Amino acid sequence: xxxKVCGMKTKDNILNVAKLNPDFMGFIFYKNSPRYFNSVxxxxxxxxxxxxVFVDATYDYIKGIVQKHQLHxxxxxxxxxxELCKQLQDLNCTVIKVFSIKDSFDFNTLEPYEDVCDxxxxxxxxxxPGGNGFTFDWTVLKxxxxxxxxxxxxxxxxxxxxxxxxxxxxxxxxxxxxxxxNSKFETNLGLKNIEKLKEFKSLIxx
Length: 206
Description:
Layout: E1 2-5, H1 11-18, E2 24-28, E3 49-54, H2 59-69, E4 73-76, H3 82-89, E5 94-101, E6 119-124, E7 150-152, H4 161-168, E8 176-181, E9 186-188, E10 191-192, H5 194-204
Parallel strand pairs: 1-2, 1-8, 2-3, 3-4, 4-5, 5-6, 6-7, 7-8
Antiparallel strand pairs: 9-10
């Protein structure tokens, strides 16, 4: 099971998280987020993929950020169109399209995006576009109708571990590619607890 640590903010914390060798690290380029990243990403090991998180941003803004920070991928948390996703794929970017879920979801919504993104990400529907700090009802994913791999996000932390390990054994988790963690591992906004992340990573990858 792959791991993405999102909402990175300060240089020292970024480098310390990188020592844990997550598969992805997420940087939020949405100015209304308390985890908005407005600095320089330090040099990271090549195997860690840098993902930029955007909410209803323009193509030109996203392209500029991708080029400035040499991002490997983009994560789209807003109402981005399939056409924009296709444009971003043409930048040789991995495109992760986010859909928010609470206790139900119409998976037909995914159909226009099937050919224009590389992954889906299912997050908890809440007050904010992401980082709401609580899980959605994962049994909704029993109705997942695609074969595209997805990221599971939304309030995942050590307290959810038993529930998570149980979910990962079920048929609906067969296309779960990566876990995306953020707020449940923070000591402050954007500042991750290294020891908790280390423990979580060891438990999900045993």
